[in-house]
Design goal:
Elements (H helix, E strand, L loop, with lengths): L4 H10 L1 H13 L8 H13 L3 E6 L3 E7 L7 E7 L26 H17 L7 E7 L8 H7 L10 E12 L3 E3 L2 E4 L1 E10 L3 E2 L9 H15 L2 E3 L5 E3 L6 E9 L6 E2 L2 E10 L2 H21 L3 E7 L5 E3 L1 H15 L4 E3 L10 H4 L4 E9 L19 H17 L2
Parallel strand pairs: 3-4, 3-5, 5-18, 6-17
Antiparallel strand pairs: 1-2, 2-4, 6-18, 7-16, 8-14, 8-15, 9-13, 10-11, 12-14
Helix pairs in contact: 1-10, 2-4, 4-10, 6-7, 8-10
Length: 405
């Protein structure tokens, strides 16, 4: 039985106020990555209230809720939300403002968790009408390496029963509420962290013959890497490497010398990011970066400690599944409210799941220019138009039920 859209929309409207309350509670009590203990307890209490079965304490704070329909072994769909907040001091003047100093849900994970709880409530009410099993994954630590998704995969989240496909969403403040966006195939970049210490010889700035200034080597390294990996923006606004047109970003966001006006430090620390969308090229660039660093250090009589920390893989949306989800979104919201998305150089640890099973990761419009809700994620004034919660709960339920047929 495929449900009428009106039935799903009615259910999402009935639980709308509760889901707003859930979101505001999570937003008001944010917790950092892998420390989401109270958030996890609260979510379990909501699942208990609605008699939804779950297993908790996966990777300490992760939760897997299970909704079994008829013939539960026929198919399994995974729905995913993340739990963690960011180390940002919230500046919004709202009654659900964070009460935890220096911590804020500035990336919308409160929205993701509340929304998927709403979807779970709807699907649990309708479980007698579809076949298969729905796994709902509340994961810790999306914001920091190694990523909670990878750890939950290691803990067996994609097994027992084996997951056939996965769906997730992410807030999109630059998209107006009421709209969603999809992209088939490659969508988001891999991300690796660059941690480099340049070692020279410290001394008094007035005595250059007696020191080796690591700041000179560090600045030269940044410039040489910029020359090797220049970028331009294509018609989609995507940064691409000029050598082979593979989307590539190598950028440094931190340089720390700890010297003074007349003190040359003994070492300088550089931190940066490397992002791309091709695994062969990814490996090549890492070697090129190392080669540039060592060459520059030799020129400046310095040495380097190089640590390139492997991050999330690229995120790829299954073409057929994403096409079906997009078509279902058009049915649910209207064609005018479903957009095609450009490539993004941002990263997301749901990518680990997309590498394992056919997946669809889409964007949920949460902005409202008329209301002044326009600030981006990872800012101290990020917020959403909560109308998005009614749309998101019903839309994901609608897509999931149709995929269970």
């Amino acid at each position: 039985m495929i449900h009428e859209i009106s039935e799903i929309k009615l259910l999402s409207k009935e639980i709308f106020n509760e889901i707003i309350s859930v979101r505001r509670h999570i937003h008001k009590h944010p917790e950092l990555s892998f420390k989401e203990y109270k958030t996890s307890e609260f979510i379990c209490s909501i699942l208990d209230k609605h008699k939804i079965t779950y297993t908790k304490n996966i990777v300490e704070t992760g939760i897997i809720a299970i909704i079994e329909g008829n013939n539960p072994t026929t198919k399994t769909i995974l729905l995913r939300a993340d739990l963690d907040a960011l180390p940002i001091e919230e500046e919004n003047n709202v009654n659900y403002k964070s009460i935890n100093a220096g911590i804020m849900h500035a990336c919308g994970h409160d929205v993701h968790s509340a929304s998927i709880i709403g979807t779970a409530i709807i699907l649990n009410k309708l479980k007698h009408t579809f076949n298969g099993t729905i796994k709902i994954m509340f994961q810790p630590g999306e914001e920091v390496l190694p990523g909670g998704a990878s750890l939950m995969i290691e803990a067996g989240v994609l097994q027992n029963p084996r997951v056939d496909l996965a769906i997730a969403q992410h807030v999109f403040p630059s998209m107006e509420v009421g709209k969603v966006g999809f992209r088939s195939g490659m969508y988001m970049a891999s991300t690796d962290e660059l941690h480099i210490t340049i070692n020279g010889k410290g001394g008094h700035a007035a005595m250059p013959a007696e020191y080796i200034n690591p700041l000179n080597a560090a600045s030269a390294i940044i410039q040489e890497i910029e020359k090797e990996f220049p970028f331009y923006f294509d018609e989609d606004g995507v940064s691409k490497n000029s050598h082979n047109h593979i989307p590539t970003v190598v950028a440094f966001g931190k340089i720390e010398g700890k010297g003074a006006t007349n003190i040359i430090p003994a070492s300088v620390y550089l931190a940066g990011t490397f992002r791309t969308m091709d695994e062969t090229w990814r490996a090549e660039v890492k070697e090129k970066i190392k080669s540039i660093i060592l060459s520059v250090c030799e020129k400046y009589k310095a040495t380097a400690d190089i640590n390139i920390e492997n991050g999330y893989p690229f995120l790829v949306n299954d073409i057929e599944l994403t096409a079906r989800c997009k078509a279902l979104a058009i049915d649910y919201l209207g064609k005018e409210n479903v957009e095609d998305l450009p490539l993004r150089m941002t990263a997301e640890d749901f990518s680990y799941i997309t590498q394992k099973v056919p997946s669809c990761f889409y964007r949920l419009g949460t902005g409202n220019k008329q209301k002044g809700i326009t600030n981006g994620v990872h800012t101290s004034t990020f917020d959403i138009d909560e109308k998005a919660l009614e749309i998101s709960t019903g839309l994901m339920a609608w897509m999931t039920i149709n995929e269970m047929q």
